Amino acid sequence: MFFCYKYISDTLALSLTILPHIPPFSSVNSGDRKIFTMDVRRRTVKPFYPSEHIASGETLKPHNQDSSVKASDALPLPLYLTNGLFFTMFFSVMYFLLHRWREKIRNGIPLHVLNFSELVAMVSLIASVIYLLGFFGIGFVQSFVSKGNNDSWDVEDESPEQFIDRTVTPPPVRPNIPMKSVLVAEKTGQIITPFSSEDDEVVIKSVVEGRIPSYSLESKLGDCKRAAFIRKEALQRSSGKSLEGLPLDGFDYESILGQCCEMPIGYIQIPVGIAGPLLLNGKEFSVPMATTEGCLVASTNRGCKAIYVSGGATSVLFRDAMTRAPVVRFGSAKRAAELKFFVEDPINFETLSVVFNKSSRFARLQNIQCAIAGKNLYMRFSCSTGDAMGMNMVSKGVQNVLDYLQNEYPDMDIIGISGNYCSDKKPAAVNWIEGRGKSVVCEAIIKEEVVKKVLKTEVATLVELNMLKNLTGSAMAGALGGFNAHASNIVSAVYLATGQDPAQNIESSHCITMMEAVNDGKDLHISVTMPSIEVGTVGGGTQLASQSACLNLLGVKGANREAPGSNARLLATIVAGSVLAGELSLMSAISAGQLVKSHMKYNRSCKDVTK
């Protein structure tokens, strides 16, 4: 008993010293500055000398100076025995106390009346709880605290002076300062960039010589911009080609880490123009378009003007479902057909919906369309995805369903979570017929005088051109969803400006443009039907500053909390309305014979690029 009491007392005393013994911040005097190096996982600051490691090709890491007291030091035993002892003590005393409390309740004895054994049990319980929290709990909480920081430390929320430990004797000054160092001027408290060209030169040489992988620079250095600079310089030296025209400054490289682009060396400049106002469903929108094609924004703007003065356009979203189609294989075609019947049974669909919908708050399974090819079964899952474009969301739901079906059909072999029956980033008849993403139709009636004065053409001429070009000509070419003049031009420009996936321009540009004379042949009715517009207002490139600003201009930035999914649906209708304006203007230019003249004037540069 004395032995247990002694170690329980020691554990209590030791546990109470864990939090105050956070490792202090080491400092290095350098003129009027103090140099600190941070340890991201323990949120401490330590001296760190990279040249000693870079030259040998070792991973950059701080010197280990962590001498703090740990919970595992409570007993002079191996770690597994210490953990086992405290786990056993915790559960034993809990069982003992619960048993005693139950007897007291039955006998009417107050719970706060304790005998010696119960008092020892309470002390043991407290000691074991403190030990377990100190050993497991603190690290668990710190892992969540540092999880979203990507091994970087935001020092803007803290005062630099509070990190200075003036009681610690400073170590000798080292000439090289690492990436995760913070220079703090004692007089002003200003944080200073601590890197020199000598430091960069050492890292660049190591990358060129292959001792430091280029892809690991962000994690080793902790500074995304510096990593991009070093990677760019190393690439220029190893390739012998200049990247002088590729800008590096003026971009937040932290914002793309782990979500948008790997191994960046700069960014591409694409100008953004504004077309509009586009009067759509009674509201005006200024449409941002990122493009390098002359005349495109001007032409779309002319179409917006023609729509505006004619009373505006109307759009309707008639379907909203992102798709993913895995492919599975059985030993026989009969077994594949059995799963098809099982999945398409309405009773079983309800169960599959519950399994699918657990993957997200916004994912809601709508239907499953199956197709058989021999022993192989393709299941096309369609679901709503809120304001996200939804590819990752639907993929998670599909994986849940596949895991469930694997238990029901153990002989099912999952070949791939995507079997191209979706179909993503490629022209496909299934998208043209069944739709994917948002399906939108947009229409407008353009008055006769507007056709003549703004578009410089005639209604009858436009109707004939549309039939022979967009309908007959596309059919002759064997077009798949390409019954339009240039829908992909507008879709690509709006996608780039608003942070959408530009590769999904392929199916998103599926469009059929219709024109006919109305009101006794005086006015023009024009419409575009686009069955697979794939857009989102959260996730991916929509989080970048420039793209987020363009979404904000349209009033669809981020998720709509009141009506989830409404922002993405509105963006899809704006895309369709912009395509309507672009189709109207280009077709008018072709019918009036102005296309070549306009491009010669606005889409040709006299600059000698060879100089």
TrEMBL record:
The keyword Ribonucleoprotein does not apply. GO terms for molecular function: hydroxymethylglutaryl-CoA reductase (NADPH) activity. It catalyses: (R)-mevalonate + 2 NADP(+) + CoA = (3S)-3-hydroxy-3-methylglutaryl-CoA + 2 NADPH + 2 H(+). The keyword Ion transport does not apply. Pathway: Metabolic intermediate biosynthesis; (R)-mevalonate biosynthesis; (R)-mevalonate from acetyl-CoA: step 3/3. It is a multi-pass membrane protein. Its EC number is 1.1.1.34. It is found in: Endoplasmic reticulum membrane. It comes from the Eukaryota. Gene3D superfamilies: 3-hydroxy-3-methylglutaryl-coenzyme A Reductase, Chain A, domain 2, HMGR, N-terminal domain, Hydroxymethylglutaryl-CoA reductase, class I/II, NAD/NADP-binding domain. The chain crosses the membrane at residues 77-98, 119-141. Keywords: Endoplasmic reticulum, Glycoprotein, Isoprene biosynthesis, Membrane, NADP, Oxidoreductase, Transmembrane, Transmembrane helix. GO terms for biological process: coenzyme A metabolic process; response to jasmonic acid; saponin biosynthetic process; sterol biosynthetic process; triterpenoid biosynthetic process. One of its GO terms (cellular component) is endoplasmic reticulum membrane. Its main location: endoplasmic reticulum. Pfam families: HMG-CoA_red. Catalyzes the synthesis of mevalonate. The specific precursor of all isoprenoid compounds present in plants. Belongs to the HMG-CoA reductase family. This is 3-hydroxy-3-methylglutaryl coenzyme A reductase.
